[in-house]
Design a protein that fits this description.
alpha+beta; N-terminal domain of MutM-like DNA repair proteins; Helicase, Ruva Protein, domain 3; 4-stranded antiparallel β-sheet; elongated; DNA-binding
Amino acid sequence: MPELPEVETIGRALHLQLVGARILQVEVRQPRLRRLVDIEALVAGCVDRRIEAVRRRGKYLVVELNRQRCLVLHLGMTGSFRIEPAGAPTLPHDHVVWELDDGRCWIFHDPRRFGCVVPASLSLDDTGRRGPLPELGPEPLSDGFTVEDFHRRLSRRQAPIKNVLLDQRVVAGIGNIYAGEALFMAGINPRRRAARIGRDSCRRLHRALREVLTEAIACGGTTISDYRSVDGLRGRFAVHLQVYGKPGENCPRCGAVAKIRVLPMAGRSTFYCPRCQH
DNA sequence: CTCATGACCTGACGGC
DNA sequence: TGCCGTCAGGTCATGA
């Protein structure tokens, strides 16, 4: 579910809520997430440590703990966090519960169990990666994401641009919704081979990605059904979506001239306007 | 290396 | 009402 704006929203909320708290204990109710939770390592990595920061990298969250440890978290499709008073009743699919020293507990909830909770040592390698994060491309909202570098990366790929945008090694944090929205904004057909995106189109796509992600973060993300931030609030970007989830509707740019179409690409639904996107 | 496909899970929804 | 197929915001392993 969550893409960069949703993970950013959740990460900011967790940072505000958790920094300064000390973890008294951690309970793993269901270790069988996408990667099996190593309970021993999680307990050793968490208990009696203070939470110092929560940061985002791509769609991952890194919770920094004192004494050089961290937690690497991913929300998969349906992961969420909430914070409750200690002893509050838990729900089905509450898989990990951290008890804090201030009378609250922090809960990881994930019905589909595509998320992960991985304890790691807090160390930077020479590429700036933390712990067991996979190889990730540049942060699209950072200065390190330049048109030149983006164009170079695209020029090596023969796959459709839509699929390449979903490759986290090319640029980090883009998922199905924002890939489709950015391609619409940039007027690029999702089936276009990435290597055949010219300099001008690449510049438009670069700008579109930054614009859509920035606006979505300002809205607290996009809620289609499940997604909620830590406080339980919905993201408000859904009303700004131009094409995602709107097959058969009039294109918002060319009006009634063309209808939005949907086609499967790499197993995911892709929405686009056949008239406006080339 | 690149690329496409299916697997991993649960729940919601529509058709019959 | 209930059963079945399909679909869902993500990643990862596998084989061509």
